Amino acid sequence: MAVVRKPTTLDLAAFKALLAANGQRTEDLGAPAGFWLVAHESGALVGGAGLEVGKGAALVRSLVVHEKLRRQGLGSALLEALVDEAQKRGCDWLYAFSTEAPDFFKAMGFRETTPAELAATLPEAPQVKLYTRLKWLETERAFRRDIAPPVQAA
Ligand SMILES: CC(C)(COP(=O)(O)OP(=O)(O)OC[C@H]1O[C@@H](n2cnc3c(N)ncnc32)[C@H](O)[C@@H]1OP(=O)(O)O)[C@@H](O)C(=O)NCCC(=O)NCCS
Predict the structure, then answer these.
(1) b/e code 95-117 from CB counts within 10 Å (16+ = b)
(2) 132: helix, coil or strand?
(3) Which of 3, 41, 48, 127 is the most exposed place for a label (fewest CB within 10 A)?
(4) Separation between Cα atoms, residue 139 and residue 119, nearest integer Å
(5) CA 54 to centroid of ligand 1, rounded, Å
(6) 25 CB contacts (<8 Å, ≥6 apart)?
(7) Residue-averaged pLDDT of the chain
């Protein structure tokens, strides 16, 4: 079973390689302003995910699971760990861009919205700036999940 934890600097090259092998971009990966997770199994990096946090909302980015381990719940585990972190940071909404995995995000409780709404909510997110610069917003798909605040201990 895969173990999910924060990456060390040594993990970043393997994380980038896994993203690149799956056609995902790697700009700003591991940047201190973001929140990052990796998953390991049998000593190999088999997954990862990141969060870019703004005011009241956060963007899921760089979510990837090794092809051989898909449909076993690892993507969901990484996503729910990002939800926990976003809640702790006071976010009410979690967003994602995805043209390749819309069914995953819908299964995870996201609803489709417009890239324009995402960009207006998270204008300072590095991925939003990158996609704006590349003029990709028009062709992207965007998803939003409303997240409840964490339950306070009595
Ligand atoms: C998206 C991704 C991270 C999902 O990882 P995963 O470990 O396979 O996800 P899970 O096993 O937790 O899937 C949870 C649910 O999502 C849905 N789902 C996941 N992949 C799906 C697919 N390819 N087609 C349809 N539904 C899918 C299913 O409902 C699934 O539940 P089920 O297996 O019980 O039916 C993985 O497919 C991936 O790395 N894709 C390439 C990179 C990418 O597109 N990342 C997203 C951009 S940020």
Answers:
(1) bbbbeebeebbeebebeebebee
(2) helix
(3) 3
(4) 13
(5) 25
(6) 19, 130
(7) 95
Mutating to test ligand 1, I would choose from 104, 106, 110, 128 the residue with most ligand atoms within 8 A of its C-beta, which is 104
Q: How far is CA 43 from CA 11, 14, 62, 100, 149, in A?
A: 11, 12, 21, 28, 35
If you search the block for the tokens 């995995």, which residue do you land on? 101
pLDDT tens-digit map of 23-74: 999 999 999 999 999 999 999 999 999 999 999 999 999 999 999 999 999 9
Atom of ligand 1 nearest to the CA of 100: 44
Nearest CA to 83 among 64, 113, 114, 58? 58
- Ligand 1 site residues (CB inside 6 A) read 22, 24, 60, 63-65, 70-76, 96, 98, 100-101, 103-104, 107
Half-sphere exposure of 28 (CA within 13 A, CB side): 18
Q: Which of 71, 97, 105, 127 to mutate to test the pocket of ligand 1 (most atoms within 8 A of CB)?
A: 71
